[in-house]
Amino acid sequence: MPIYKTITVSPTTSVYMWKVTEPEHELSRGIELTSHCQNRMDGMKSEAHRRAFLSIRHLMAKAGYEDSDLYYDDWGKPHLKDGNHISITHSHNFTGIIVSETDEVGIDIEMQRDKILRIAHKFTPIQEYRTLANTDAIIRKLTMVWGAKESLYKIYAQQGLSFLRHINVMDFAFDDRRTVAEILYKGKKSQYDVEFLEFEGFTCAYALKLMGS
């Protein structure tokens, strides 16, 4: 069962991605779930969701963790019992995690789809994208911005946080593959490094909270 991609972000932070192609019975081999997570998986009607769920446990194993090392807080944010930071994402047949010993982290994978054109006004000032060359470029850029904001939202994990009003992603060129973003919420400002990866019609964004912000 091959891992799709591993990215060493820094000496203390890594991204692991899986392309889910295996049948459920194959993915379940060697994976021991807690009773809570087994109940969660048993409640999933979609086999695709169960396969994604299991693939994430394989990614955790690559990072040196078992299912029992993971827990969720009241906001639904995942945590590791050893105090390291983790974020998890799933989109169609791709899953991913980011794990860091030192930084708060978030990750998001999104399929590049024209649907994003219809919802763009809900998360970003759409007029800022009119200079882009064509519709495909706009879809790519919007997907990157959405992924960046989703990654920050996963780090911050507070009710009431608005993608449009509270999260700002600094403009970037496609070739940059990275940007800086900030959250300004309830009078507090925090800043984040964001990096991007595009593959097979998907976009992955992952964010690290900047120290001291």
Automatic annotation (TrEMBL):
Domain of life: Bacteria
Domain 4'-phosphopantetheinyl transferase: from-to ranges: 105-206
Alphabetized Gene3D superfamilies for the sequence: 4'-phosphopantetheinyl transferase domain (3.90.470.20)
MF terms (GO), sorted A to Z: holo-[acyl-carrier-protein] synthase activity; magnesium ion binding
Pfam family, one: ACPS
Entry annotated with the keyword Transferase: yes
Annotated SUPFAM superfamilies: 4'-phosphopantetheinyl transferase
Keyword annotations from UniProtKB, A to Z: Transferase
Coiled coil spans: none
Name assigned to this protein: 4'-phosphopantetheinyl transferase superfamily protein
